[in-house]
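Extended Data, panel c. Modelled sequence:
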Amino acid sequence: MGLNIKPLADRVLVEPAAAETTTASGIIIPDNAKEKPQKGTVVAVGNGTKDEPLTVKVGDTVLYGKYAGTELKLEGKDFLIMRESDIFAII
């Protein structure tokens, strides 16, 4: 991807998955009713801390809390930067 950003310590940069645009039955969901995605792909990781090395790595698909992380926009794309402890699972 070539982003020029390096998270510090136990922080992880995640690209959120696209929000669902239709329901399973085919109903189109308007923008103001879409749920915030809680799944994304890790695009950059810090070095961890002395006591806790990072578990996730670049390319992992992860689940995180609904309000986890701080939103930021880089090169026209939306990302979240969060602590690894805000990540629930690698899927």
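The mean pLDDT is 87. This feature is highlighted in the accompanying rendering.
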